Amino acid sequence: MSNRASEIVAKNETKCVELFKKIDEIAYFNQKKVLDAFRKNRISAAHLSGSTGYGYSDMGRDALGKVFADVFHTDEAIVSPLIASGTHALTISLFGILRPDDLLLSVAGKPYDTLDDVISGENVGSLADFGVKFQSIELSEGKLNFSEITDKIQKLQPKVIFLQRSQGYDWRLPVSIDEIGEIVRITRKFSPNSVVMVDNCYGEFTGFYEPTDVGADVVIGSLIKNCGGGIAPTGAYIAGKSKFVEQIGYRFTASSVGTEIGSCISGYLPYYEGLFLAPTTVASALKSNVLSGYVLKDLGFDSTPECGTLPNDIIRAIKFQNEKKLTDFCEAVQAASPIDSYLTPEAWDMPGYNHRVIMAAGTFVQGSSLEMTADAPIKPPFIGYLQGALTYEHAKIALTEIVEKLIS
Ligand SMILES: *Cc1c(COP(=O)(O)O)cnc(C)c1O
Within 6 Å (CB) of ligand 1, which residues are found? Predict the structure, then answer.
């Protein structure tokens, strides 16, 4: 590696000291929370092994749900490798609670792209097909529009008030826990029967508190992101108040059996171990996020969140302004990956997108974005999204190689 690239990274690392200290405090706090949940539920070796068939009285499955519920300070949780993805978990959560003629109100802009067809697709078994109405309140200058939100919640009395915590693939900031608390207060005051549901993907363990700590009714996330700790091979979780988690359980399997069934022959070891490692893995991803912000700024690239602020999720959006720099960046991330380092990512017409998309994903778990990955639609202003890193050291090596490529 060139001295110049190493020097740039080393120089910027010194600017991270304060935030790294804060991130370590958060990881310590969350590690304790997770460890306490294991101890309270007396997790033993027997919980790690699997079940077959219907999975009646599968103790590993049931206890895993209890551990997640304790971590999120909720009554109950569904945690399952049988939930195929975050989108699937969000879908069963929405269908579990909404009924014909109910209104779904999204208050932080429209939900994640993969929910578009779930909400309003035509003749695909969408919520719209079943007569569920939908409205969304756009962000104004990247911020929640509290006056419009208050107005609509009061006037429309929505069944579900939905928001996505992460910035996702947008040039905006994540919604903070304080803001989620404010949404809950507005809801309780003006529409007490509404359910506050939060897409928690990418947000877990990035701070001391989760949306459920400030009153959200249901949180949903993927296990191939933060909560799987880089170990869980698939699956998702849903945590919340009993009444809602039970309704979602009936949609997850069948109205007669709910969460009484569901087996996993390979056992639950990677799910327990992944959750146990998640606080420190997320801390590595946060440190990667902070360091990359400073380093890329030094090279003249604007990114969010702003340097010097604690990220509220594990994504950094970087404006490259030109296609070559963006693809150089993605190629460097791929080349610095433990898996498929010898491949060169190429932009392609991915189904469901209006632009060519490039992805660097040299991951152990396919599609895992707690692992260091980058992706971008090829369109001005050529924004690349960088997320994850299982270890901070990996992020630092990769960043040095990114710098080398970008300055050459
Ligand atoms: C990843 C993600 C989803 C969807 O999860 P998949 O597992 O990719 O289906 C939903 N919302 C947000 C904010 C996400 O980051």
Answer: 85-87, 112, 114, 164, 166, 168, 199, 201-202, 222
